[in-house]
Amino acid sequence: MQQPMGGADHDIFQDPALNASIQRDPLFLFLKQWWRHVAVVAAVALLGVYAKGVFDENRRAELGQAADTYANLQQALKQMPTLETKLTQAQSDLAAAAVDKKEAAQAKVKEAQAELDKAKVRVEGVLKTLAETREPYKTLAQLHQGVLSAQALDIDNVLKVLSPDRWRTIEVGSSADRFYAELEALVVARAFIDSQTHHEQGRALLASLAEQGHFVAITAATSLARVAETSEQRAQARAVLEKLAAAHSEQSDLVNPVLEELQSFD
Hints:
The protein is mostly helical. The protein has helices spanning 20-23, 26-34, 40-54, 57-96, 102-131, 137-151, 155-161, 175-193, 199-212, 217-226, 231-247, 252-263. The two termini are 31 Å apart. The model is unreliable at 1-13 and 34-48 (pLDDT under 50).
């Protein structure tokens, strides 16, 4: 891959040429947060493709509505961890409550569960709305649905909405499609890793993405290293990371700490 224009220190997301309206877009913010996890030149190309769509007057209104919906989804998702923690704490308090405090503790558990259920319904509703919009938000809705299913360890539903192999059929030059397809596979891989039944499939998929992926290779390789349990698995992860480090020196800040962790096992 060619080195990024402007050198390794050039931050594409601080470029004054970018219109401020794009920088308020939720998808742009997503790319801004994760751009170092993808190939830099490819990220620039993807950004260019997306920016062209944003400035297309025929799509501006509809994409604006989709962007607002996506922002609502992000807000709803941010509430979930807090509500889950609240429910866990209420359940813990119930287990430790004295007999005369049980009823009040049970009421708090019921209240926390109701709040969490309400939030889940809201997320599902927003996802359904987003899935009916235009790209790229339709695809983002699928990715989020896959992530939620993975967190719930619902492998069947993960595989209903996401494909572990679609990325293999898409040319790298089709930047946007390949980018999303690799993200799909990464989500599936991580869901597999958390499943006792599919764990080895998850490792194999991470290895494939690390060795053949274009956008998520670094992320897949670091994930492969962190789930390595044997010396053979650590050696495999180290070899892949060293190859990526040599090819993409601009991402050494992501690779080197993981390599150091692996070396600590030697």
